[in-house]
């Protein structure tokens, strides 16, 4: 029986830091275009209390999302010590394609995965490259797809990337613009005859009856901006309540399918969307088993890196595996969970034995 294992990881964290204080000059508005009653200092302090974000990273103007994806991919390939010509699939998760700095248009022709394959110099035409649009859970879903290819016997090595430059699709008049950041993470998923570790189980869901447009593209809150220019928007409260209700259930479904005891779970790598939301999700997840979350079970990077959408989970995983987050590590044999929630509304979770 063949298993699917992560044999290498890599991430790219942009160099440009933007601290919360740098938003003091923004003119934040309500959705109807009216001014807030509070000063920017109050708005920013409240934002930090809720999200935990102190600063975030933005890509240099010369780089696009596919460039960031390439940098992360090269590190993952080096980490796995494989020949990129042996890759069967390159799966790249994103939401907005390559958006050039100061541009108002996305570029997705050719696909970002094709661009990364080109940058890697891969000649093999049997290495299939494609993009996946699945909201913030896109990278996790890409890993699930890679496992499916491996289980079906049509792939032995897959490269899965999550890359995004959200800083280029934000409305500077929207408080939520402070959440978003840029970055990329990647991993190599390989077929293995060693079944004692690798992906054990997964769960994926899409909710659309009421939830489809909780995240969407909309106009600037400044009514003087061009009406045909769109920015990332969200119904934050609805997303918060949706995530708290549904993400713990999906995580439990994956754990229950795995046959692994909840007591064996050492780490939960959850999408870095909002510190308070993530903490509440973990508490509710463990409450489903009538337990309390173990100390240190949830590594976090949101404080310094913000929310880079599809890149948060693979970046966080890479940082922990490379001992870049204090007091966090994963050892051989540890059971971990990878979980995410985002636009769609989509949810997924993977149970993995390292």
UniProtKB/TrEMBL annotation:
EC number(s) per entry: 2.3.1.180
Q: Look up the domain of life of the source.
A: Bacteria
For this UniProt record, the keywords arranged alphabetically read as follows: Acyltransferase, Transferase
- InterPro entries for the chain: ACP_syn_III_C, ACP_syn_III_N, Thiolase-like
CDD domains of this UniProt entry? KAS_III
Instruction: Supply the Pfam families for this chain.
Output: ACP_syn_III, ACP_syn_III_C
Domain Beta-ketoacyl-[acyl-carrier-protein] synthase III C-terminal, which positions? Answer: 256-354
Domain Beta-ketoacyl-[acyl-carrier-protein] synthase III N-terminal per the UniProt entry, residue ranges: 130-203
The residue range of the signal peptide is none
Q: Which GO terms describe its molecular function?
A: beta-ketoacyl-acyl-carrier-protein synthase III activity
In terms of PANTHER family, this protein maps to: 3-OXOACYL-[ACYL-CARRIER-PROTEIN] SYNTHASE 3, BETA-KETOACYL-[ACYL-CARRIER-PROTEIN] SYNTHASE III
Q: What is this protein called?
A: 3-oxoacyl-(Acyl-carrier-protein) synthase III
What lineage is on file?
Answer: Bacteria, Pseudomonadati, Bacteroidota, Flavobacteriia, Flavobacteriales
């Amino acid at each position: 029986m063949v298993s699917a294992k992560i044999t290498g990881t890599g991430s790219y964290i942009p160099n440009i830091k933007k601290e919360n204080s740098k938003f003091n000059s923004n003119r934040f508005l309500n959705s109807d275009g009216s001014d807030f009653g509070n000063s920017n200092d109050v708005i920013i302090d409240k934002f930090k209390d809720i999200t935990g974000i102190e600063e975030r990273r933005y890509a240099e103007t010369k780089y696009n999302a596919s460039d960031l994806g390439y940098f992360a991919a090269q590190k993952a390939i080096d980490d796995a010590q494989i020949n990129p010509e042996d890759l069967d699939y390159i799966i790249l998760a994103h939401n907005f394609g390559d958006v050039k700095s100061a541009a108002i248009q996305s570029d997705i022709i050719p696909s970002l995965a094709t661009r990364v394959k080109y940058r890697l110099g891969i000649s093999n035409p049997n290495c299939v490259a494609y993009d996946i649009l699945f909201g913030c859970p896109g990278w996790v879903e890409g890993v699930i797809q890679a496992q499916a290819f491996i289980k079906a016997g049509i792939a032995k090595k897959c490269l899965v990337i999550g890359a995004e430059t959200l800083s280029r699709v934000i409305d500077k008049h929207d408080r939520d613009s402070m959440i978003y950041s840029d970055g990329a993470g990647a991993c190599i998923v390989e077929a293995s005859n060693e079944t004692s570790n690798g992906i054990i189980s997964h769960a994926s869901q899409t909710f659309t009856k009421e939830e489809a447009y909780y995240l969407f593209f909309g106009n600037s809150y400044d009514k003087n901006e061009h009406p045909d220019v769109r920015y990332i928007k969200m119904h934050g409260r609805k997303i918060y309540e949706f995530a708290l209700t549904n993400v713990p259930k999906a995580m439990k479904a994956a754990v229950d399918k795995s046959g692994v005891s909840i007591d064996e779970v050492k780490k939960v790598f959850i999408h870095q969307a909002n510190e308070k939301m993530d903490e509440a999700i973990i508490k509710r997840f463990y409450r489903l088993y009538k337990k309390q979350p173990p100390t240190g079970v949830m590594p976090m990077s949101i404080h310094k890196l913000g929310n880079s959408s599809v890149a948060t989970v693979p970046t966080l995983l890479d940082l922990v595996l490379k001992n870049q987050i204090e007091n966090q590590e994963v050892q051989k044999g540890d059971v971990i969970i990878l979980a995410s929630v985002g636009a769609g509304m989509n949810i997924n979770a993977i149970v993995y034995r390292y």
